[in-house]
Amino acid sequence: MEKLSSYRVINLIFKNGEISNKLEKIHINVLENNPVTYIYYNLKKKKIYVGETNGFRRRHYEHLIETNPKVDYREYKNCLVIYSSLFDKSSILDLESLILNYMVAESDMTKFVLANGNNGQTELVYKNKEEILTEVFYKLWSNELHTLGLVDNPNIEELRESLLFKYSPFKQLSSKQKTIVEEIEKDVTKKYLVEAPAGSGKSVLFTNLAFSLAEKDPALKIGLITTGNLTRQFNLIFKSIGLNEKLTVKTGSQLIMDAKSNGKKYDIIIVDEAHKLKKYYRKGHPNARKHLNEGDEEITLLEDLTNGLVLLYDPYQGIKPQNIRPSEIRKLTNDYQNLLLMQQFRIGGNGDFSGEDFLKGILYGLQLSEDKDFNSKVFEEDYFKIAGTFKEVIDYVDDYSHAYPKTTNRVIAGYCREWVSNSGKKENKGKTMKELPYDWNVDGVQKRWNSTYEDWVKKANSEKEIGSIHAIQGYDLNYSGVIVGNDITVKDGKIVAVPENYKDIGGTPVKEGFNLSELTEYILNIYYVLLSRGIDGCTVYFEDKNIEKLFKERVGL
């Protein structure tokens, strides 16, 4: 046993579930009387279980006689027991949660399957929380766990940026998230509309609720829906906890078509990013509407497949005419139980203002809301800046990437330039990435749009590109440079769309019955999403100076 400053470990060896180590008296005392966090593991079979207890020896034998465990505990060959003078009930629970969340974060590399259930932990607050994180967990992760082969990547900061970490079903829930989970679990046959703004923890609620329902009732038929650019990440998460055969995440169209062709019904369907559910739209991509007939929309089609339905929804994130409009969603969900998740995890704040102030200010500044109840100081602080030129917003992101190389910083923009660099275009066939034309040429700076949609933020070349709404929705950035393009302008004191400058082919209403106010709403929703991506900072460049002037006046600058 290596002696370290803030904690100690005992590595137990098992033979058919029995401890085979010859233990000293001091270790026997620890195993019988001390609060500990422990990790059962079988490296050959890639199986892990993380737990905490105030009496390991007793808890170990309880595990051995469990009925219907996820895994036979006799299969584990070793157990690492961590103990410390710093430990109490809260700290061992917190350490358990940290280990689980970071193991999920790298499960696509390690291929470990975690046998833990969902204990629905709420966020823990205790006096030495920071010390447990820095002096125990950080050191344990990069030393003992890495040395034993339980950890592949010792770099905590890299893993923290992983979507698998951000959406881990072992994340400690806020009291608001926990209340919503408990409310839905009371009756899974009902229908719920959970209204939650950007950065409020919808996706963590999504994974936690699915995990909890699957644990409590293994026979429950659960359908899971999210956007196409996130299905792979969520499926990796459920694979890491051994539930990939029971919990498969699909897009709305995939789930509906699969259910129709197989005559499948669900007990409950949970929809993340429900504002992206579709209606029939003649101009849309054929693959996106082949499950829809004229007059159809996905909410009613989902209701036909299930008793229970949970929609996690933000009325300001519908960004295409194919998306069911907020007014239509209100009518369709009139008899649903409404639940509110009004909190902010993505955007921080200080003692004077909060992330909620920033989001409310953005909505007001863009004329998406007339709610003035926000602290305008948020727009005067270091978090938010307005760039004078295109080059300045590019430099802002580059500067922060050089100064803080372990952060994720990108330039993102409204769809106000054609995607001429699209490698799928006939004229671009056979061209290398460097040979493709540029989409942006402003202030002597040349840039291309995102070369891919799926997991764009994690692609190496994304730092040199500009991300569109389709590449960034659902993702977090540390520092975001946002270009509010010339697809909107000001007329008679109102923000209006400039249709000829909006270049998303599938994002404009059909010519018959064209509605300028509808297009304006979609474009403004896009900018709301783009402006709500930054965790640590956001700098915005307005191409239309009248938009800049109106925005500044409305937010008090």
What can you see in these coordinates?
The protein has 557 residues and is an alpha/beta fold. Helices cover 34% and strands 19% of the residues. It has 19 helices and 21 strands. The chain has helices at residues 25-33, 56-64, 89-105, 107-110, 129-147, 156-160, 163-166, 175-186, 202-216, 231-240, 252-262, 286-289, 298-303, 326-332, 355-365, 390-403, 469-472, 516-531, 545-555; strands at 8-15, 18-19, 36-42, 47-53, 78-83, 113-114, 191-195, 222-225, 249-250, 266-271, 306-313, 337-340, 384-387, 409-413, 440-442, 445-449, 465-467, 477-484, 488-491, 494-497, 534-542. The strands form 4 sheets. The protein has a 7-stranded mixed β-sheet with strand order 13-21-18-14-17-16-15, sandwiched between helices. β15 (440-442) and β16 form a beta hairpin. The longest helix has 19 residues, at 129-147. It is globular. The protein starts with 7 loop residues before the first strand and ends with a helix.
Largest sheet: 7 strands, mixed
Strand arrangement, major sheet: 13-21-18-14-17-16-15
Kindly name the structural category: alpha/beta
The stretches of 5 or more residues where confidence is low (pLDDT under 50) are: none
Shape annotation: globular
What's the tally of helices?
A: 19
The count of strands amounts to 21
Give the overall pLDDT as a whole number: 91
Cα-atom radius of gyration:
25 Å
Q: For the terminal residues, how far apart are their CA atoms? A: 60 Å
Roughly what fraction of the amino acids lie in strands?
Answer: 15-25%
Query: Helicity level, as a percent range?
Result: 25-40%
